[in-house]
Amino acid sequence: MSVYSPVNSNSRSLFLSISSLLFSSLHSIADLSSRNTSRFFAPSLAFFHPTDFIMLDFSIRETIEFDDSTPSLTEHVDDATDVGNDHTPSPGDDDDDSFGEDFDHAESDSRTLADENHGSPSPKTSRLSHLFTNFADEFLDIVEEDAQEAVIAAAKAQNADLGKMVKQHDHEIGNLMDEFYDHVSGHEKRAKAESENVRGEMKSLKRSIDKRDQSHSAFQNEVSDRFASLEQSVVGRILLLEKITSSRMTRLEKSINARFASLEQSMNDRFAELEERID
After folding, report:
1. How far is CA 134 from the centre of its chain?
2. Cβ-based neighbour number of residue 20 at 10 Å
3. Taking the model in full, what pTM does it have?
4. pLDDT at 51
5. Among residues 140, 159, 149, 118, which one has the least CA distance to residue 56?
6. Is the pLDDT of residue 32 over 90?
7. Residue-number span of the structural domain to which 38 is assigned
8. Which residue ranges have biased composition labelled Basic and acidic residues (predicted)?
9. Residue 68 — φ and ψ, nearest 5°?
10. How far is the C-alpha of 48 from the C-alpha of 66, rounded, in Å?
């Protein structure tokens, strides 16, 4: 069963301070204990340094999960204090260098020393180690969950940014498509209007050509009628002139014949008179 309790910034600072105090106390305990005890705590203490723990403040989540079977943080501190009071410092037994070693190397050294000495830590030390291990496991779970939440948050932020970029690109593509459709629609409208204008001009030109054809046909008919009328008039006038000429020629011929007859008679009379005179 798990119990969740919200932790604000002040609670987080208090939690980090108490945890730092706890780790410092555990380091002091390990420093004041025998070599076997120090070697027993070395793997955990070398892995969790107080300074490194404080640096993880920004990655601790807002909700911390606790197990019912795990003692409270106050009990951890009290137990650490009790253990620290039970031990007296041993001069010349300084193992600070062991706390900076790698976790795997320290654990290997601890197992080697345990096999060599065939000894086991005291019950209080075992209980403190168990409490510290539970606390470390709980802290690792918190850090792991915070890391997962940070990765998820970063992925969500990246997905949100990508979503915004995709939406922006979709919006830009939509605007370009709208502009393209507007351009195509305007071009089609202009082409349709120009086509209608051309059709109107063609119809007007056709009507004009039809009118010109009709006018030309009427003109041709009028010219034909005029030529026919003129031809009839000329023929009539020629016939009339022929009649007049024939009539005049007949009268002239009669007049000439009459004059020749009169002249011949006059000449005959004069010749007769001349013959009479000659006789």
Report:
1. 53
2. 15
3. 0.31
4. 43
5. 140
6. no
7. 2-160
8. 102-118
9. -65, -35
10. 19
For the chain, the maximum distance between any two Cα atoms, rounded to a whole number of angstroms, is: 226
Residue ranges of alpha helices (H) inside 33-102 are 35-47, 50-54, 73-86
Closest to 65 measured CA to CA, from 134, 9, 13, 17: 134
CA 160 distance to own-chain centroid:
16
CB atoms within 10 A of CB 149: 14
Number of H helices, E strands in the chain: 6, 2
Amino acid type, 84 = G
153 strand-pairing partners: none
Q: What is the tens place of the pLDDT at every residue in 205-255?
A: 999 999 999 999 999 999 999 999 999 999 999 999 888 988 888 988 888
Phi, psi of 71, deg, nearest 5:
-65, 160
Pick the residue with more confidence: 103 or 134?
134
Q: Which amino acid is at 192?
A: K
- How many distinct structural domains can be found in the chain? 1
Q: Is residue 276 part of a domain?
A: no
Contacts of 115 (CB under 8 A, 6+ apart): none
Residue among 66, 79, 74, 75 nearest 7 (CA):
66
* Spatial separation of the C-alpha atoms in residues 212 and 176, rounded to whole Å: 52
Cβ atoms < 10 Å from Cβ of 60: 19
Query: Which residue type does 167 have?
Result: K
Residue 202 lies in a domain: no
CA–CA dist 97, 84 (Å, integer): 20
Within a domain: 63: yes
Structure-block tokens of residue 11: 């609670």
- Cα–Cα distances (Å) from 47 to 103, 144, 165, 265, in that order, read 6, 15, 43, 185
